Amino acid sequence: MIKIRKATLKDISALVDMWKEFEDAHTAMVVKKNPFMKPLLKYKPNVKAVCRKSLKRTIAKIGFVFIAEENKTIVGYIEGSIKNPELAANRIGSIWDLYVKKDYRGRKISSMLKNAAFSFFRKNKVKAVEMNVNRHNTNAYSIYRKWGFFEEGIRMIKIL
User: Fold this and answer.
1) Whole-model pTM?
2) Which domains does the chain have, with CATH numbers?
3) Segment 121-140 mean pLDDT
4) C-alpha 125: how far from its chain's center?
5) H-assigned helices in the chain
6) Which of 87, 77, 83, 49 is nearest to 63 (CA)?
């Protein structure tokens, strides 16, 4: 049975490993569909240490990480925070990462994680939620559309 819970600092190592798995799979998918993105998707050698530091800060201070567990094994996570725009009247929820291990997909785990994040946002009086998705990630895109997300802008890149 899948259990959703807030991550703690004890979960950091497992989350860093899962983040790396997520990034490697995402990079391979994006580069396969758009080779021009390859130079933009390279990481510094200390990427895991930076990720570890960022996750600690998110969990302890600025946001949330919810994890999905089955039999005490972490099988997915969602990470985000609340943005307080300087000019806008309403706070905005921001989802940074959402990942479910390949063997656990198709079991509504991403929906459970999304529901935990949305509950967090509602408790904190957030009126809207944003997230980014690579246009080549068609599976994630269709799920986010099904959840009611819509396109608000287009990010454009030029390789120099």
Assistant:
1) 0.90
2) 2-146 (3.40.630.30)
3) 91
4) 21
5) 12-33, 47-57, 109-123, 138-146
6) 83
